[in-house]
Design a protein that fits this description.
The complex is a heterodimer of chains A (148) and B (140).
Chain A: E1 3-8, H1 13-23, E2 30-35, H2 39-44, E3 58-61, E4 65-68, H3 69-78, H4 84-90, H5 99-108, H6 110-117, H7 122-130, H8 143-147
Parallel strand pairs in A: 1-2
Antiparallel strand pairs in A: 1-3, 3-4
Helix pairs in contact in A: 3-4, 5-6
Chain B: H1 2-36, H2 41-65, H3 76-114, E1 124-125
Helix pairs in contact in B: 1-2, 1-3, 2-3
Classes of the chains: A alpha+beta (148), B mainly alpha (140).
Chain lengths: 148, 140
């Protein structure tokens, strides 16, 4: 595995933050960011709409492995030099459903989440992450409106 | 006079041994580190060099501190016995340091490998890989 294709929803604020934040990090794996539902996405991955909708965050490896939503957030962290060890801790069954909250906190306040993860108790970290409120994505208009 | 010659021989043998062990470590440890750092040769070379510098500092420091002998040397027999005991200690220290360095190498390598597989399994696997996109191709 040497490359990940990240198909993000261009209407979602959190996804856009992911795209900008990822491009500023040092990588172990090459990352190619593709807006979901765009002509490029359709051409590169024909038939993907049968697996995922444009609301899903999708990560596809160069070997054809498809990771959706929570797993996709974890794989984005796995690709980064500074965050690979975090991806393993956040892949814990208690924390995986909170991957979006973890990413939101991580990209805003790295210090805060590193204090939580220092406790090594996944249940405590999960409790903290449940209190993170995510701004809902405004799902208005079609994908092509946002790609203009 | 005998003691001065003994000290000089001691320094010569000890430093030669330190250089030999350090060079072995540097030469043979490189491949370990390249593997541990996922083929990043620059990072491996840097860590390798730093480890060897530490190795030299500790060993030459020990050799210098262990030089002085309180024995009063009367003849060559006593000189050789003292020399042998001192070099024995230097060899044991070098051996201990060498194994410690090997331990550090293997820890770094195991740590590297344990994170080589992704933390989560894929949801599904595509039948066909990504279609190569040629720059300039009409995507509309």
């Amino acid at each position: 595995m040497t490359k990940l294709y990240v198909l993000y929803d261009p209407r979602c604020e959190l996804c856009l933050r992911l795209r900008d934040w990822l491009s500023g990090q040092r990588h172990w794996l090459e990352l190619e960011m593709i807006p979901a539902g765009s002509p490029l996405a359709k051409q590169t991955f024909p038939g993907l709409e049968q697996i995922a909708s444009s609301d899903d965050l999708v990560v596809i490896s160069d070997e054809g492995n498809v990771y959706l939503n929570n797993r996709a957030w974890i794989m984005c962290l796995y690709a980064l030099q500074a965050y690979r060890s975090w991806s393993f801790r956040l892949a814990h069954p208690l924390l995986l459903p909170l991957a979006r909250q973890a990413f939101d906190t991580l990209s805003k306040n790295r210090h805060k989440i590193s204090l939580w993860l220092a406790s090594k108790d996944p249940a405590r970290v999960a409790n903290e992450l449940r209190q993170v409120t995510l701004e809902p994505c405004p799902l208005q208009g079609t994908i092509s409106d946002y790609l203009k | 006079m005998i003691i001065v010659i003994s000290y000089l021989i001691y320094l010569l043998i000890s430093i030669a041994l330190t250089v030999w062990v350090a060079r072995t470590l540097h030469l043979r440890g490189a491949i370990f580190l390249v593997d541990a750092f996922h083929g990043s040769t620059d990072l491996a070379a840097s860590v390798n060099h730093l480890l060897v510098v530490g190795f030299y500092l500790i060993n030459i420091g020990f050799v210098s501190l262990a030089l002085k002998s309180d024995l009063f040397i009367h003849d060559w027999r006593e000189a050789i016995e003292m020399l042998s005991a001192k070099i024995g200690w230097v060899l044991l220290t070098l051996g201990a340091m060498h194994f410690f360095n090997l331990f550090v190498f293997s820890r770094i390598r195991n740590h590297g490998w344990s994170m080589d597989r992704p933390p989560v399994a894929p949801n599904t696997i595509l039948g066909v890989g990504p279609v190569t996109h040629y720059p300039g191709a009409d995507l509309s």
